Amino acid sequence: MIQSRSRPTARYGAALAAALVVLTGCSSGASGPRSISAAVTSASVPSPDPLRWSACGKNLECATLKVPQEYTEPDGARIPLAVMRHRATDPDHRIGSLVFNPGGPGVSATETLRDLPKTAGTPGAFSPAVLARFDVIAVDPRGVGGSQAVRCLTDKQRADAAGTGFDPAVPGGKPLPQLLSDAAAFTDGCVEHQSKKFLASLSTDNVARDIDQVRSALGEDEITYYGLSYGTVVGPMYATLFPHRVRQMVLDAPVDTNLWFGDSLPFLNDVAVASERTLDAWFETCRTEGTAVCPFGAGDPQAAFDTLIDTLEAKPLKVAPLEGVTPGGRLDGAMALEATRALAGDQHTWPLLTSALLAAQGGNGAPLYTLWSSVTVSPFPVPTAMFEAHTAVRCADWKTPAGIAAHKAAAAKAVTEARRIGTRAAYSALNCARWPAPNKDRVTKPLTGADAPPALVVAGRLDPVTPHHWAENMTRTLDSSVLLTREGVGHGSYGTNTCVDSAVDAVLIHGAHPADGAVCTTDTPATTRPLVPANR
């Protein structure tokens, strides 16, 4: 992504700018494991024809590539993949093609690439040097975006789900019978809108095979790869299936791939605890900076926050509509908690979080409400279209217990270990527990990337979604890798930290790695000082 906006507002885009409007009152113009064999790689599928590109934006070209739904049935049903290319800005010094996956799962890579000029200071923001030397290739994974996106809910069902109140004191936000009913409606809707065979094909091993079909259609012998979050599952899978097709690979905010393909309940518990730790870091920083800097809570931000959530849940704040900013509504405790969870997970948005909490404490719920409405990427269920693809891919990969007892035990554990965020995480794998399209031949053996070049693994010290110990586990699983740690709070590092940017560029362009275990400090110290004075 090309840098063009100030970092504090970049990740949530217009919603953060809108929140500032309401804060200041000013307008703005702006199955079991199996071995990996050649029989299930794309090598058994005929090479595709070259991609036929058409212009679809400034320096952008688009194409569609049809790939087998199942690589064991190369002559069977096929899936269209949406592919987009940002041409190298210095074609005389072009190195090759850089394929990237921005995560999710469920995030559209093509839309992310299209928004490059608008999303400065966000993870994955490619530098001008990288954009000069590579054709950047975005491929919407099967079931995502323009690649036959998964659909499980009608527009009305999604709107109804978004408008349903959640109780932040109840694990899962609703009584368990209602959560089970919701899961049944969701999974029934999935098979109503698409076939079970298609849903079963959405596993990461097939995504990696698809990438190799794209590589072949590009006419490249090797690709360079950058993956963020879930993209760090796709990358090691590709390097394991096609090690000799990898030129260089960077894995940012890495997922523990062994945990990903194992029992999903410990995986989700790790995410809840990681998110809780970033909220705790905001509390601690606010308290340490003192009331002169962070007036929220008058020295005890934790107690003030808990009181605010309880108060909002008991008596939600009315939010008046504001043209171009928010349609209006009601801010309750669950909404405030979800918005806080998202903002606490990035130290660059801490000042905005402080401002929004102070506003809500003073009776103005518009900033938190506006921010809540923008939270569409979450490790836990949210009623958005992206969540449908997110769930479908996870269920195709995960090994989720079917018995409800395991989910009850996991919910109790999450609430105990993550007192505030744990209720949000509880029961968030119920859809996968009753998933109607089991993937019986998914690849689950360790993703070692044997014979591929060393991968650069970049991890944040306090990441709200992918905790640092996952990165350590990834480096132990990969046959060859280098770990680079970024100090501070945030999910994803490249594009947000100059030290990381330099290291990643050196790997992508020159294949030069930093020393294993190197650490990058933050560019600017984290602060909870509000963007808007408390008396505004």
Description:
This protein has 536 residues and is of the alpha/beta class. 41% of the residues lie in helices and 14% in strands. Strands 1-2-3-5-4-6-7-10-11-12 form a ten-stranded mixed β-sheet, with helices on both faces. It has a two-stranded antiparallel ribbon with strand order 8-9. The longest helix is centred in the middle third of the chain and has 26 residues, at 264-289. The protein is globular, with a radius of gyration of 22 Å.
Please tell me the overall pLDDT. 89
What percentage of residues falls in helices of 4 or more residues? 40-55%
- Biggest beta sheet attributes: 10 strands, mixed
Number of strands: 12
Low-confidence stretches: 1-11, 26-39
> Order of strands across the biggest sheet?
1-2-3-5-4-6-7-10-11-12
The N- and C-terminal alpha carbons lie at a distance of 34 Å
Q: What percent of residues are in strands? A: 5-15%
* CA radius of gyration: 22 Å
Class from secondary-structure proportions? alpha/beta
Shape: globular
Report the total helices. Answer: 21
Quick summary of this structure?
The chain is 41% helix and 14% strand. It contains 21 helices and 12 strands.
